[in-house]
Design brief:
about 160 residues; mainly alpha; 5 helices
């Protein structure tokens, strides 16, 4: 079972989801490149083997698209490939390892929350600097803002 309920964009009338989607169509619907899809498969991030046509071409199905979305979101939040691979291995193994999956996800969530807090602190500094610039521009004395060739103590 995949933990994403996102619906892919609807495709052109000639797309038959039952027959599967080409790698190009899967890339378009998931928002990742064809290269990324091949990479995910190559490094073991997929939970089931990607279906193939009789000619050997990849065919992606709804479950594949949903799993790719999971991988993409985990990666976008900074989860290392090694951890995503471990998560994929656990999911592919099936029942009995839910505690380990939960621990992996909770650990990653903690890291994401810490990074978000750090970003919030950095954003406060940026907002402060914006306020300083707006204030100086409104007061007409923006020339007093710090410049490398000015004396120490200037902003």
């Amino acid at each position: 079972m995949v933990e994403v309920n996102q619906q892919p964009e609807s495709g052109p009338p000639h797309s038959d989801p039952q027959a599967g989607l080409s790698i190009g169509e899967a890339a378009r619907r998931t928002g990742v490149s064809v290269h990324t899809l091949r990479y995910y498969e190559r490094v073991g991030l997929v939970v089931t083997p990607v279906d193939r046509t009789h000619g050997g071409r990849r065919r992606y199905h709804q479950l594949d698209l949903e799993w790719i979305t999971v991988c993409t979101r985990l990666r976008a939040t900074g989860m290392p490939i090694k951890s995503i691979r471990r998560y994929a291995e656990l999911v592919a193994a099936g029942r009995g390892n839910e505690d380990e999956r939960l621990n992996l996800l909770e650990s990653h969530r903690d890291q994401v929350l810490a990074k978000a807090a750090e970003l919030q602190e950095n954003l406060k500094l940026i907002d402060h600097k914006i306020d300083v610039y707006r204030g100086r521009l409104a007061a007409g004395d923006a020339y007093q803002l710090w410049a490398p060739n000015r004396q120490p103590g200037a902003r």
